[in-house]
Specification:
Helices cover 6% and strands 56% of the residues. It is mainly β. The strands form 5 sheets. The protein has a 22-stranded antiparallel β-barrel. The chain has a 5-stranded mixed sheet with strand order 3-8-9-6-7. Strands 1-2 form a two-stranded antiparallel sheet. The longest helix has 14 residues.
Length: 618
């Protein structure tokens, strides 16, 4: 599989040069996930991939996980049909060690076993931009940023007034539609959008014959009021309602009448204040996330069991800029996660409090060199304190043509409320998971920015990792893991009409717990090798055509490495054509060669599927 992947990548990149997953807009030179404030990319020592609005539209991808799977260092698994449970692993970390933000709000579920985020219900909808930061970064983001951060953003309001809409239909009676409208009038700007998706789906169980349908509605809204040049109010909201037929997972997956329903609420309210000609800025915000999950053995009855997770946060961030070449970022956060459970004749409610302080400095001592370093302390109401450090550097000797990156980051993950307090398996003596990660990389621009080569090597050690202990029948800090590897991106843009992205990542993620049955084994569902290549060409008469090839190597479904998952190659093609000045028709074929594969043992995946639709812009 690896030999095939490398030969294919080299052949394709030689035949059609590659272009990075960004466009030449000013916005793609700015990142937020590194430090929590906007920074030019050449000030950042960490590895960050940007998936912009143009890429999201051209790819025509429905599931966020399928879009993320084309970025280096990302591995994913999904248990069946669209809407089924899906997780994202960054550089071989656990899926629960990926911090997820929607419009700046932490959305990891406090009611989940490990506080992970289920990407299954997160569709592209009105998502406008994604930043993927790889590597531990708890100084800026706190708990869970061990593998890295996935930050998703809806569109900022347009200047004047703008509206967009689209609708599509395809395989398995799938219907998708979305619309948004936004604008700016004087000191007020805002926008609102909605996206609807339904499908008959496929059987989530590999041995099943009954299709598992899915419905999803997502809504988003933004409002910003500038009271003056120095003071503004920022309001944001995101909502997901989902209804999924799924196959029972008690034992081997098999056809069943089970149903899962989700309501997810995300809210942000913040005040921004700038003083002393912008040399001192402050942001104070309240964020709120609630995840309600109900499960039914038979549709049309009362829920048989369910979970509700809420996370209320207060954030203060100050930025002092005494001179142009130096910034001091500092802040305080208070977080109160809680969860409720009902079912099987019992109920449970738990909560915790986390108070955090942090400081981060960014300096440019001379032209071309940017240095960052910081410290954070989190105090948890159950296990006490955790202190993390981080530092990175970015050096360019030739005005950005070459950038050398170095990064050291520490991460921690607080035990989940379930792991701490569950009546049967909880352990209130759990310690936080801790990680240390190291990066070194280089970005080389050639041919006046039309060519880019990026290479990154990384290492991460994680201690006190939490897992279920079969000896005590409780959760314990019984695991240690190590992940190391390389990420490579080759990008070329020989002519304005041709955009291609090519990436390869090698991840060696292994158990280092010392337990004889698992020590030295590969961590499950994390393939060592993955290759992705996407190409899009804009023809002179308006037609746009593109293709994506993704190849993933062999992996295992279990910690003992007894259940293999074969590697696979997926190809997809797409096209779009404008009709008049406001409309566009488009279509795609996913899994063009009808590959039979799995990302989770005994769970099915889609075969060849075709879709078509129309877009409108005003």
């Amino acid at each position: 599989m690896l030999k095939f992947a490398i030969i294919s990548l080299l052949a394709l990149t030689a035949a059609s040069p590659a272009f990075a997953e960004t466009t030449d807009s000013d916005r793609d030179d700015i990142v937020v996930t590194a430090s929590g404030i906007e920074q030019p990319r050449d000030e950042v020592g960490q590895a960050i991939t940007i998936i912009d609005a143009d890429t999201i539209e051209k790819r025509q991808t429905v599931d966020i996980v399928d879009l993320l799977a084309t970025t280096p260092g990302v591995r994913f698994n999904r248990s069946g049909s669209t809407g089924s449970v899906a997780g994202i692993s960054l550089r071989g970390a656990e899926t629960t060690q990926t911090l997820v933000l929607i419009d700046g709000v932490k959305v990891n579920d406090p009611s989940g076993i490990g506080d992970g985020y289920d990407f299954g219900h997160l569709l592209t909808g009105n998502i406008d931009r994604i930043e993927v930061l790889r590597g531990s970064n708890s100084v800026a983001h706190g708990s869970q940023a061990i593998g890295g951060v996935v930050s998703l953003m809806t569109a900022t309001p347009a200047e004047g007034l703008a509206a967009n809409a689209s609708a599509e239909y395809g395989y398995s009676d799938t219907v998708g539609a979305k619309a948004d409208v936004s604008g700016t009038a004087g000191a007020i700007s805002g926008g609102i959008g909605g996206a609807y998706f339904r499908t008959d789906g496929i059987s989530s169980a590999a041995v099943g014959t009954e299709k598992d349908g899915y419905k999803n509605f997502a809504g988003n809204a933004r409002l910003k009021v500038a009271f003056s040049d120095a003071l503004s109010l920022d309001l944001r909201g995101y909502y997901i309602n989902a209804d999924l037929d799924y196959d029972s997972f008690f034992g081997a997956p098999a056809d069943s009448a089970d149903v899962a329903k989700l309501d997810q609420y995300v809210g942000y309210a913040g005040l921004n204040l700038g003083l002393f000609d912008g040399h001192f800025t402050s942001r104070a915000a309240v964020t709120w996330m609630r995840n309600d999950r109900d499960y039914y053995f038979v549709r049309g009855t009362a829920p048989d069991y369910g979970y509700s997770g809420t996370n209320l946060r207060f954030e203060y961030q100050g930025v002092v800029t005494p001179v142009q070449q130096a910034k001091l970022i500092f802040g305080y956060e208070h977080e109160r996660p809680d969860y409720d459970f009902f079912g099987f004749g019992s109920t449970d409610s738990q909560k915790a409090n986390i108070d955090s302080v942090y400081a981060l400095g960014i300096v440019q001592p001379f032209t071309g060199l940017s240095l960052s370093g910081g410290v954070r302390h989190d105090d948890h109401s159950q296990f006490g304190g955790a202190t993390t450090f981080g530092a990175n550097a970015n050096y360019s000797p030739n005005a950005g043509a070459t950038n050398v990156r170095l990064s050291y980051g520490e991460g921690f993950k607080a035990p989940s409320l379930y792991q701490l307090y569950d009546a049967f398996s909880g352990n209130s003596a759990l310690r936080p998971e801790r990680s240390k990660s190291y990066d070194i990389g280089i970005d080389q621009n050639l041919a006046d920015g039309r060519a880019l080569i990026s290479l990154t090597a990384f290492l991460r050690n994680t201690d006190d990792q939490i897992n279920y202990d079969n000896a005590t029948f409780k959760y314990g800090n019984i695991d240690r893991t190590r992940a190391k590897g390389v990420e490579a991106t080759l990008a070329l843009k020989p002519v304005d009409a041709l955009n291609v992205t090519a990436s390869y990542s090698y991840i060696d993620a292994r158990d280092r717990s010392g337990r004889p049955a698992f020590d030295g084994r590969r961590l499950p569902r994390r393939a060592a090798h993955a290759v992705s290549l996407s190409a899009d060409y804009d023809w002179s008469f308006g037609l746009s055509t593109g293709a994506t090839l993704t190849m993933v190597g062999d992996s295992f479904d279990d910690f003992a490495n007894n259940v293999p998952l074969d590697g696979y190659a997926l190809a997809g093609i797409r096209a779009s054509f404008p009709v008049g000045g406001h409309f566009e028709i488009y279509g795609r074929v996913d899994n063009l060669f009808d590959a039979d594969y799995a990302t989770a043992f005994n769970y099915a995946t889609y075969g060849r599927a075709a879709y078509g639709g129309v877009r409108a812009r005003f």
